[in-house]
Design brief:
This protein has about 550 residues and is an alpha/beta fold. It has four domains: about 5-150 and about 460-470, Nucleotidyltransferase, domain 5; about 155-200 and about 310-375 and about 400-455, no CATH class; about 200-305, no CATH class; about 475-540, Alpha-Beta Plaits. It has 17 helices and 26 strands. The strands form six sheets. It has a seven-stranded mixed beta sheet with strand order 5-6-4-1-2-3-22, with helices on both faces. A six-stranded mixed beta sheet has the order 9-8-7-19-20-21, sandwiched between helices. The model has no long low-confidence stretch (mean pLDDT about 90).
Length: about 550
């Protein structure tokens, strides 16, 4: 029998995912993922800055290089691939296609006009694999689904299409729980969209022991009657299972679990914060243990700096909810259903998410749908005629997009919630400040939420070959540190262990791994440099003059 294959790809801000599909029987064959993005940074703006600073062509080659590494791990003859579908947000898909990105990098129409930048439509496309540089049959069709508008992309369209969100009669909200926090609110037949820069903490990044959803990642916490915390972690096939029961004050293992933990993923971070608040070990903005640290196991800790990072994320999500509801003329109390997509949306406890404000606290029903971006790519590979339908859906939604960056409501709500979660503003002061800005105070929490899980893990079907994790997908950025005194302050400042500094003759050389570097939003290494000779923009690609 002639072998015919398809490939589904999700280009996420924090990592890439690919699946092989047998076109004869539509079954998934194998799955490969990365735990990082090949470009420096933990959010889309970092990736944009890098692409603009070092060149879009090079950024495109890095993404294609990483995808080609994934393709060789999904267990098929790549010369027999007939079609590919690639999903992601507008920035990632633009970098993948090596198309204009400047209209995504600058906010405000006046600023864009001054720079001579025009908005472009990101509609459906069918390209050829060879033209894109994918290491497979060059004549394979590569389908790219449409964006809704600017920062609301194909991945946002996926979270609506892959659930019953578009058909529900409830006033409902859907959110992709990632660094870009795309969300949509459905009121009657109208759908309003927005996007909040939630930051990397929601995916376990910018947390000292944080990691993406992968084997060994803590994905939830449950308090126990004796004061211990039961940890839950992802196993080798990405199901949540009990891990160690620990003393959160000392990290001592009280009862060993079935799997050891390597770090904390985004939902684990949410579990820690919600459990800390519920047990009195935390209050908004502050950890109340003697040393301001919660310990899950020796070396795996969560401290006040981590809490601040999470606080920024919570503030962005809550402000987004307030903004969409206010701009649509409804109360947050009117939102009855919440659809949750993405890895964090899969493993997150709905009640814990509501407790801290990642979903509206008054919802009565949540639907957890997994990685809908990859799911829609799979559906496109299996049924390519779906591409036209998705374009129609995107066209219908486009007219009702709310730019949070230009919204005074978002600006005010975010300032208030940032005060709560990073400075410890009391709840009565929060309510007064919201009222001052003409916004609705936070409503009481519904503790009886109906939870519907459409999937039990982020990627429900891994295929017969299972999951492969591909590491070290970036490149080395290298430069000479003129006048360096060799104190290694930059190396010590990097929380991601991305930096090597060595002496070659009289010169000091710095090498930074692009996939580990947190990019322009971090710059801890630059600030740590005593003689201020380290500038990320001046680094070059290793081996390239």
């Amino acid at each position: 029998m002639h072998e015919r294959y398809g490939v589904a790809i999700d280009i996420g801000t924090s990592g890439l995912r690919a699946q092989s599909i047998d076109l004869a029987d539509k079954r998934v064959i194998g799955t490969a993922i990365t735990l990082r993005h090949p470009l420096p940074g933990a959010n889309v703006m970092d990736h944009l800055h890098f692409a603009i600073d070092v060149g879009q062509d090079f950024s495109n080659r890095l993404i294609i290089r990483a995808l080609n590494r994934l393709l060789h791990e999904i267990g098929i003859d790549l010369e027999k691939v007939e079609r590919v579908a690639v999903c992601g947000n507008p920035i990632q898909l633009s970098l993948f296609q090596n198309m204009e990105i400047r209209d995504l990098a600058y906010a405000g129409e006046r600023a864009k006009a001054k720079l001579g930048v025009e908005n472009i439509r990101r509609d459906k496309k069918v390209l050829k694999a060879g033209a894109l540089g994918l290491d497979m049959n060059p004549e394979a069709d590569v389908m790219v689904p449409p964006a809704v508008k600017h920062e609301i992309g194909a991945d946002a369209l996926a979270m609506m299409y892959e659930t019953d969100f578009l058909e529900t009669k409830d006033i409902a909200m859907v959110t992709d729980f990632g660094t870009n926090a795309e969300m949509a609110l459905k009121v009657g037949d109208d759908i309003f969209t927005g996007s909040a820069a939630a930051g990397p903490a929601i995916e376990g990044q910018h947390i000292k022991r944080g990691m993406l959803a992968a084997p060994g990642a803590v994905s939830d916490i449950e308090p126990q009657a004796d004061g211990g915390w039961q940890t839950y972690a992802l196993n080798d096939v990405m199901y949540t299972i009990p891990s160690d029961k620990v003393d959160p004050l000392t990290g001592s293992v009280l009862v060993p679990g079935a799997t050891k933990i390597r770090g904390i993923t985004g939902t684990g971070v949410i579990g820690i914060v919600a459990t800390g608040l519920n047990t009195g070990l935390m209050r908004p903005g502050k950890i109340l243990t003697a040393d301001k640290v919660v310990r899950l196991q020796e070396g795996v800790v969560f401290d006040n700096d981590d809490f601040v990072e999470v606080g920024k994320t919570i503030a962005a999500f809550t402000a987004g909810h307030i903004t969409l509801a206010t701009e649509c003329g409804i109360s947050i109390r009117d939102i009855k259903s919440m659809y949750m997509s993405g890895a964090s949306g899969t493993y997150m406890s709905s009640l814990k998410a509501a407790r801290i404000g990642l979903i509206p606290g008054t919802v009565s029903r949540t639907v957890q749908a997994g990685n809908t971006s990859l799911a829609m790519a799979r559906d496109l590979v299996r049924e390519p005629e779906l591409l036209d339908q998705l374009q129609t859906e995107a066209d219908n939604i486009r007219a009702r997009h709310i730019m949070f960056a230009n919204s005074k409501v978002f600006e005010n709500a975010f300032a208030v919630e940032l005060g709560v979660w990073t400075q410890g503003m009391p709840s009565d002061a929060e309510d007064k400040m919201l009222k001052h800005f003409g916004l609705e105070p936070r409503p009481p929490l519904n503790k009886d939420i109906e939870v519907v899980k459409l999937v039990q893990r982020d990627i429900q079907d891994l295929g017969a070959m299972g999951l492969k994790v591909v590491e070290n997908i970036g490149i080395d950025l290298i430069g000479e540190l003129e006048g360096c005194i060799g104190d290694m302050r930059c190396v010590k400042a990097c929380q991601e262990d991305a930096i090597v500094v060595r002496q070659e003759g009289e010169a000091w050389i710095i090498i930074i791994a692009s996939d580990k570097c947190m990019g322009t939003a971090c710059r801890r290494c630059e600030r740590a440099c005593k003689i201020k000779t380290l500038k990320l923009e001046k680094l070059r690609i290793a081996g390239v003059a």
